[in-house]
Amino acid sequence: MEEAAATGTGAARRNEDIALDLMKFVAMTTGYGRTTSSGVGFTGTGAASKPEDYASQLLELYGKCLSAVAGKK
């Protein structure tokens, strides 16, 4: 029997969606990659100087989140 695509309110979420939510949470609560970090104790380290750097850091964070959700080490 083939699995049908899950739809509706009880549908299982894809790993990509979960990783995106995790990335948003981490980035917003820590100020990850921001040029002027006002996060919780994370000031002055790893700040991006250009928007391109910030985008690169967010993509790297998303990859780490996706790996964590998928259970890869």
Would you spell out the secondary-structure blueprint of this structure?
Blueprint: H1 15-30, H2 51-70
Helix pairs in contact: 1-2
Based on the model shown, name its key terms.
mainly alpha; single chain; 73 residues
Verbal overview:
With 73 residues, the chain is mainly alpha-helical. 49% of the residues lie in helices and 0% in strands. It is built from two helices and no strands. The protein has helices at 15-30, 51-70. Helix 1 packs across helix 2 (51-70). The longest helix is centred in the last third of the chain and has 20 residues, at 51-70. The mean pLDDT is 76.
Task: Round the Cα radius of gyration to an integer and report it.
Answer: 16 Å
Tell me the fraction of residues in β-strands, as a range: under 5%
Mean pLDDT: 76
By DSSP (H or I, 4+ residues per run), the number of helices equals: 2
Low-confidence region ranges: none
Order of helices and strands: HH
Amino- and carboxy-terminal Cα gap: 32 Å
Helix/sheet category: mainly alpha
Strand count, sense and barrel status of the largest sheet are: none
Helix fraction bin: 40-55%
Global shape: elongated
Number of strand elements: 0
Q: Summary?
A:
The chain has about 70 residues and is mostly helical. It is built from two helices and no strands. The mean pLDDT is about 75.
